[in-house]
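Q: Structure tokens for this one, please.
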Amino acid sequence: MTARELDAAGILDAGLRADYTACRRLNARHGRTYFLATRLLPADRRSAVHALYGFARHADDIVDDLGSTVLLAEREAALDTLEAQWSKALDGGWVEEPVVRAVADTRARYGIPASHFTDFLASMRSDLSVTDYPTYDDLAAYMHGSAAVIGLQMVPVLGTVAPRAEAEPQAAALGVAFQLTNFLRDVGEDLDRGRIYLPADLLGAYGVDRSLLLWSRTTRRHDRRVTEALRAAASLTRHVYRAAEPGIGQLHPVSAPCVRTAFVLYRDILQAIEDDGFSVLHRRAVVGRRRRLAVAGRGFVRALAARRGWPVFRRSPGSEPDRPRGAHVSPVPARLPESAWVPRASGAGGEER
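A: Here is the predicted structure, written as tokens:
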């Protein structure tokens, strides 16, 4: 955390300044897209975002470090300790963990409901034992705590031009869209951890199960059934992006460019997955540095204009570059009935296994 950001946020205590700085380092090291977007926020709001991300990142690292040899019982104990420290900090007590001290301070400053953090920790704990999700409704229950509440935590920090309650559904949807994108991008790495975050009924509609995913991961060979199932997951994710996008306009003008930038960059990951032929079981899809800098540059111009009260240049309809090249969306019902995943004729059969 830079001194300017801490000063702007009114964080003057030396200990808290060190705590927030630790959170910023976590964001810079692990959240490349988030960190880039956060730099577009006014200085006084960045520290809170870093604290929220740092807490989430710390909890996620406890349950999710692929390279760690830490046993399950040790992870459970570490999560127990984190929850105990959070409860103590919530009651005003002093705790040892810097990210807990920082996020407790942020929660108090912005009046963020404690239940959002309780729900988040509950989803993190489920990662210690749950390895797959039979239906999208089952997955949605997990994502409420692991993703939707992150969006809800952010709303008081970002500020809104409408009543907070009106902005919250779209903020929650945006958190879900980002996480669904991560699930699709990281499906191979998650499989290495023994987890599948794509709902079994979606995969099963295309004849895909854990054994087929493992076969493709191990042999590095493609199967049309897997490709079509991943394509359906991408279509589902685009549906959630569409539901979330109107919420960006409900945010305070100085915050909206940050969220717009993260929105575009994460949606670009989805496009990169498609452009790479849905090869996520074999390699990680990435957005090129030039594209990321171009999107961030447009976000910077919008952020500067908002802070200084300048009019923002609007492109003519159809020329807006934020939509990824070649992107196509197909409607997916909000409740996602099984019929939404029935394989198209081109995707049925024809496996390469």
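A few notes: The mean pLDDT is 86. The two ends are 51 Å apart (CA to CA).
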